[in-house]
Write a structure and sequence with these properties.
The protein has eight helices and two strands. The chain is mainly α and 195 residues long.
C-alpha cells in the first residue's frame, strides 16, 4: 500500500518536477555555461573561460548597478514587510465589508507590470501627472520623479511596494487566521494580569 501511495504522489508531482528541472535548473546551468563563452546568438558559442567575469569586475557600471540593487532592497524590504503586516492585521480585524478591502489591496498584484508602469508613468509625469498636480495645488513644486536621479530609486521602490504589498498581506493574513483564538485570549489574560 505504501508503494502505491508513492506512485500516486510521484505521478502528480512529475509534471511540476519536470518543468522545474527543465525550465529552472536546466536554464540556470545553461546560463552558467554561456557565461564562460563569447556568443552573438547567431554562431556557435566560443569558450573564453573567465574573460567575461574579469571584464565585468573591471567595469565601474557593474559596481554602480550592484549598489543600486542593494539600495533598492534596503528601501523596499522593510517598507513592504511593515505595510503588509499592518494591512494583514487590519484585514484580520472585525471590519465590515472586509472582503472589499481585500480585493482592493490585492488588485495591484493581478495587474500586469506593463499596465502598472503605464499608470505610474502618468501619475509621476512632471508636467501633467496627478501627483505633481496635487503638490502644486498645495503650493509646492513637484520633482521630475523619473528623470531626477535623486527621485528615480524612491519612485521605483514606491511602485514596487504598491504592486507587491497586497500579495504579502494575503500571505500574512493566512498566517494570522491560522492562529487559534485561544492564543489571543491567553495573550489578553496575560496582559491583563501584568497591569
Amino acid at each position: 500500500m505504501y508503494k502505491s501511495k508513492k506512485k500516486i504522489i510521484f505521478t502528480f508531482l512529475f509534471p511540476s518536477l519536470l518543468g522545474l528541472v527543465v525550465f529552472k535548473v536546466g536554464a540556470m546551468l545553461y546560463s552558467l555555461y554561456i557565461s564562460f563563452t563569447e556568443w552573438n546568438l547567431f554562431g556557435a558559442p566560443e569558450f573564453v573561460g573567465l574573460k567575461n567575469y574579469i571584464t565585468i569586475f573591471r567595469d565601474p557600471r557593474f559596481y554602480e548597478s550592484l549598489k543600486n540593487t542593494l539600495l533598492f532592497i534596503a528601501g523596499y524590504l522593510p517598507v513592504v514587510l511593515v505595510l503588509s503586516m499592518g494591512i494583514a492585521l487590519l484585514l484580520n480585524s472585525k471590519v465590515k465589508r472586509v472582503n472589499i478591502f481585500r480585493g482592493l489591496f490585492f488588485l495591484p498584484v493581478i495587474t500586469s507590470w506593463v499596465a502598472v508602469s503605464m499608470i505610474w508613468k502618468g501619475l509621476l509625469n512632471p508636467e501633467f501627472g496627478i501627483i505633481n498636480s496635487i503638490i502644486e495645488f498645495f503650493g509646492g513644486t513637484g520633482p521630475a520623479w523619473l528623470q531626477d536621479p535623486a527621485f528615480v530609486l524612491p519612485s521605483v521602490i514606491m511602485v514596487s511596494v504598491w504592486k507587491d504589498v497586497g500579495f504579502l498581506s494575503i500571505i500574512f493574513l493566512g498566517g494570522l487566521q491560522g492562529i487559534s483564538s485561544e492564543y489571543y485570549e491567553a495573550a489578553q489574560i496575560d496582559s491583563a494580569s501584568i497591569e
